[in-house]
From TrEMBL:
<dbReference type="GO" id="GO:0004519">
    <property type="term" value="F:endonuclease activity"/>
</dbReference>
<keyword id="KW-0540">Nuclease</keyword>
<dbReference type="GO" id="GO:0004527">
    <property type="term" value="F:exonuclease activity"/>
</dbReference>
<protein>
    <submittedName>
        <fullName>Ribonuclease J (Endonuclease and 5' exonuclease)</fullName>
    </submittedName>
</protein>
<dbReference type="Pfam" id="PF17770">
    <property type="entry name" value="RNase_J_C"/>
</dbReference>
<dbReference type="InterPro" id="IPR055132">
    <property type="entry name" value="RNase_J_b_CASP"/>
</dbReference>
<keyword id="KW-0269">Exonuclease</keyword>
<keyword id="KW-0255">Endonuclease</keyword>
<dbReference type="InterPro" id="IPR011108">
    <property type="entry name" value="RMMBL"/>
</dbReference>
<feature type="domain" description="Ribonuclease J beta-CASP">
    <location>
        <begin position="121"/>
        <end position="245"/>
    </location>
</feature>
<dbReference type="InterPro" id="IPR036866">
    <property type="entry name" value="RibonucZ/Hydroxyglut_hydro"/>
</dbReference>
<keyword id="KW-0378">Hydrolase</keyword>
<dbReference type="Pfam" id="PF07521">
    <property type="entry name" value="RMMBL"/>
</dbReference>
<feature type="domain" description="Zn-dependent metallo-hydrolase RNA specificity">
    <location>
        <begin position="262"/>
        <end position="307"/>
    </location>
</feature>
<feature type="domain" description="Ribonuclease J C-terminal">
    <location>
        <begin position="353"/>
        <end position="450"/>
    </location>
</feature>
<dbReference type="InterPro" id="IPR041636">
    <property type="entry name" value="RNase_J_C"/>
</dbReference>
<dbReference type="InterPro" id="IPR001587">
    <property type="entry name" value="RNase_J_CS"/>
</dbReference>
Amino acid sequence: EGKLNEARMDKLVTLHPVQPRDKVRFGQLEVEFIHVTHSIPDTNAVAVHSPVGTIVDTADFKFDPTPVMGKPTDEQSLRRLGERGVLALFSDTVRVETAGSTPSERVVLETMDATIKEARGMVIIATFASNISRIHMALAAAQKYGRKVAVAGRSMEQNARVAVDLGYLDPPEGLLLPLDEVLKLPKDKRVLVITGSQGEAAAALARIAAAEHPKIRVGKGDVALLSATPIPGNEETVTRTIDNLFRRGAHVVYSALDRGVHVSGHAGRDELRKMLDLLHPRYAVPIHGEFRHMVLYRDLCAEAGIPGERVLLPEIGGVLEFGPDSAAQRGRVPAGNILVDRLGDRAGGHVQLRTRDHLADDGVVVVTIVVDRESGALIAGPDLIARGLRPELQNGALNEAEADLRRQLERRSNGQPQYGHLVQRTKETVGKALYRRSKSRPLILPVVTEM
């Protein structure tokens, strides 16, 4: 609902809250909701009852016997569906390569409890903004050891606010406080839950690691716990963030040191097999995974008695057609990524999407920077090259923007450069400088070279 309001699309849809085991009818289709455990509370699998049979989409799931929030997966409802007959199962497959079952969220709670108990300074916990259960754990551990909690990061603050409004988080009075109030307390009384566990450039953790967060500084005695494992492709940004936190004097607890900092919200191989055994589908469709995951899931289906010809491997945009005793792939529909350029004040939530015509009207600025790979010191640049700018930006505006950016780069603390953060800072600084002169927003393309 908050995202719809932010995008000014709330008037275009009508929201209908549902509860587990609720059923909703759409013409000839009836949709049933089944509670499953995941890192996001109240996740539901969906069973679509149609004239030709029942199709079940597991959503992201695992079988967590001791969840920190909510109840375990509703195996009774799943078993009932299997007894009545399931035409097709659309299943999460991202951890099919992992033998056994995914550990319980309770493992993370124990790690977080021990970390906060032993810490002598401020504790920072970085996690996904959607992971409300980690905020819940931080609140429980902080209360136990006499600390106060604040959340930092726009998406984290918004999600925490919604979770409190909906009753998923119910902290005692005075435990969850605004960031400014918690930062007034002694360090050994603070727990901060922030975004940036994947080293995202604009997130709070990367800014803290680069000593460029406007409010939060870390030093000796402080502890940063990264309650996530790096998503493939993010390893370098996460590693640099960890290195820079150590440079600030903080102690960092991360997955390579303690596997208990994070457990996945996705089912392991044994749990995927368990879902197959509960539902006994005639057809299986592996989704939410790479192609190798889908192929390995097909092998798992063979072990469960579902032959390979009854396992469909979909592609993005592929159309699947089911009959009472048949399933086939029928062509494709347009699908894929859409590139948009988002503008607006983040705090106010105002959003605009620029078309290609508007981009052409405002022009393009290419910013080149060369920095030292080890220290992050500026070696050359910044140099700005522009095409298609408005006339009012031609006389000295680029020089002003260049000077502003140089001051920002020279003022930053030593430490390995965070590539994403440099790109983000470059866009913000140059964009603001040019907007002051003309109220236009050229497309800014930073090119950062490390030597």
